[in-house]
Design brief:
By secondary structure, the protein is mainly alpha-helical. The protein has two helices and two strands; from the N terminus they run αββα.
Length: 83
């Protein structure tokens, strides 16, 4: 077994206390060293372990990318159309 797939990590992942209820169902387990974990329904992809120290940086980066990409696109298209 790899470090990312062990009975201890599976037990943390299965524990409902580490999952929030609601639309997004966030995973938060300080004892789990993984940054990315499968969602409750693994067929739906992966989610961040919000208790991981780098999870905040991923969230900030995602928000900045989502905010700045359209601005860069508008500026680029505007510069090309005026050329």
């Amino acid at each position: 077994m790899t470090a990312n797939h062990s009975p201890q990590l599976d037990a943390l992942w299965r524990d409902p206390a580490h999952w929030s209820d609601g639309l997004f169902g966030c995973y938060c387990a300080k004892a789990d060293p993984r940054l990315w974990v499968p969602k409750r329904n693994p067929a739906l992809g992966w989610t961040l372990n919000m208790a991981h120290p780098r999870a905040g940086w991923w969230m900030i980066g995602t928000v900045l990318f989502a905010a700045l990409f359209p601005v860069a696109l508008i500026l680029t298209v505007g510069a090309i159309s005026h050329a």
